[in-house]
Amino acid sequence: MMGLEGPRSNVVARYRGKRGRPTLHVSAHIDTAAIQEGGWTVDPLGGEVTRESPYGVSPYDRGGGYIWGRGVSDDKGECVALVFALEALHELGVELEGDLILTGNCDEEIGGVAGLGYLIREGIVKADYGVQLDGSLTGIGLAAQGRTRFMVCTFGRSYHGQLPILGVNAIEKMSKINVALNDYWRNVLLRRQRAVPGIELPSALREVGIEKLTAMLNIGTIRGGVQGATVPDRCEEEVLRGMIPGETFEDMRDEFISVIEGVKATDADLEYEVEVINVREGYVMSPEHPYIQGARGIIKEVLDRELPFTGTLASTDMNYQVNDGGMPCFNLGVGGPYSNGHKQDENVAIDEIVELSKIVALLVMRKLGTKNRRFFPS
Ligand SMILES: [Zn+2]
């Protein structure tokens, strides 16, 4: 259920430059969101290519078509862009001065603890600059919310379902908790915000009045009971709590538990447990940082348009680069609203992958330096 069974695999590669510095860490994740059983109109692992997408048009579409399947926009397209960028540098014989570190991280979708979190905390990956290939080509990602995954379990007493008066129903108990959690997030958390000057949030959020990073909560799964004729003695659910940068884990956890304690105060039979699955912190990178300003220039050179600095209420592995690795960093990727990321019929414009490849190649050359004359004729 936690998705952490068996060994985890990360991919780490290092190109040693002539001087060995500076160092640039380019990161992408190799896991994907789960594949829904129904609702796909294509084979989610088929890699089909079509001319158009019925879900919309990419602003970078120059006729290269759309590729379909789970992960094409998140984050396989980004992995492919990285591979093609390196392939191009290799074919052109570019020799770099600084070191390039590449990682393909596992487990991003479930928090990245065993993925990039592990690689950075163990000191396997250390760099002066970072880029996280995850996101889109609509903005340069500089800020994200954190999140904590909670497992909440309620306990009851089984009985024959036609005599429920003699049992304690764990699903009923969980329902009370969920009414309280729903009230808590809509009336308390939605008012907890942090402004991020110079950084835009997605238009879908601005349209519903969310202009700042905002604390949130999602009841993501629920399961309990075996059949209608039995009073369930156990119910469990996963709750994801979106944290704004600056909210501390301890305060957030204590507040979460106090909401459930509030229910318990009105129901002496309520028995529950709360477990923390994992925590990912939020971050805000300054748009004024020289590395960020330089990267924005490189992106503009390739795309011929200036991308805004953006923030997200979701998250990427970039928190490990910024908070644990101390790297100035931004995130960029492929796909847009038409891409159905994490949903059925995920697709992405192949031209976006090409554009991202060019950006990565140019960033690597500019940041790590190359004396090859042909690329920088005087
Ligand atoms: Zn992703």
Question: Could you say which small molecules are bound to this protein?
Answer: zinc ion
Number of helices: 8
Overall pLDDT = 94
Largest sheet: 5 strands, mixed
Q: Under the CATH scheme, which class of the largest domain?
A: Alpha Beta
Q: In the CATH hierarchy, what is the superfamily of the largest domain?
A: Zn peptidases
- How would you sum up the global shape? elongated
**From the 3D coordinates, which CATH architecture of the largest domain would you assign?**
3-Layer(aba) Sandwich
Q: Helix and strand string, N-terminal first?
A: EEEEHEHEEEHEHEEEHEEHEHEEH
Which strand-content bin applies to the residues?
15-25%
The counted number of beta strands is: 17
> Order of strands in the sheet with the most strands?
1-5-2-6-16
Distance between the ends: 58 Å
Kindly state the percentage of residues in helix.
25-40%
Explain how this protein is built:
This protein is an alpha/beta fold and 378 residues long. It folds into two domains: 11-144 and 282-375, Zn peptidases (Aminopeptidase), CATH 3.40.630; 146-280, Alpha-Beta Plaits, CATH 3.30.70.360. It contains eight helices and 17 strands. It has helices at 72-91, 116-121, 170-187, 203-207, 249-264, 290-303, 318-324, 350-368; strands at 11-15, 23-29, 49-50, 66-68, 99-105, 129-133, 140-144, 146-155, 193-194, 213-214, 216-224, 234-243, 271-280, 283-284, 309-312, 329-332, 347-349. Strands 1-5-2-6-16 form a five-stranded mixed beta sheet, sandwiched between helices. A four-stranded antiparallel beta sheet has the order 11-12-8-13, covered by helices on one side. A three-stranded antiparallel beta sheet has the order 3-4-17. α3 (170-187) crosses α5 (249-264) and α6 (290-303) crosses α8. The protein starts with 10 loop residues before the first strand and ends in a 10-residue tail after the last helix. The model has no long low-confidence stretch (mean pLDDT 94). Bound molecules: zinc ion. Zinc ion is lined by residues 29, 74-75, 108, 134, 316. Zinc ion (ZN) binds at residues 29, 74-75, 108, 134, 316.
